[in-house]
Design goal:
Length: 50
């Protein structure tokens, strides 16, 4: 298992790094949202209607 990981690292590291960057950006942006932002959000209002 470790041998496969080491062998494939050169192909997979860009995907893993981009996944980590995207995940951290999503967490940071969503952590900054307030209840007031949610009330004013078109997306949230549409889902509350259903």
């Amino acid at each position: 298992m470790a041998g496969v990981f080491r062998r494939e690292w050169s192909r997979n590291w860009p995907f893993l790094v981009e996944f980590a960057i995207t995940g951290s950006l999503i967490v940071n942006f969503t952590a900054g949202l307030t209840e007031e932002d949610a009330k004013n959000s078109w997306f949230v209002q549409e889902h509350n209607r259903r």
